[in-house]
Amino acid sequence: MxxxxxxxxxxxxxxxxxxxxxxxxxxxxIAALPPLDHLPPVDLxxxxxxxxxxxxxxxxxxxxxxxxxxxxxxxxxxxxxxWDVWAERRGGVEVRRKPIDYGRIRSALSALSxxxxxx
Length: 119
Prior knowledge:
This protein is an alpha/beta fold.
């Protein structure tokens, strides 16, 4: 699942993930998501959920609590160190700053999946 308000980034990432064999559910924002308990099962979450004080941190935290076995990659332009501190306290969560190319995203997702024992 990809959640990112930047349509160019979201569409490009979704296309690359599909080429790698993933089924992709893409959303433009947290508000565009159905309730967490109505989402389809996913193998990973890539999200840029804006600054922590705008609800992004709460979404990522709720997701991680509900799905601790699902790798989470936060790709953000937010320079706040709060993301790094949050990610360090959880397994299966990585933070990368934009701009970022797909090769680095692929590497981060592979590392997350390996750490959690996912395919």
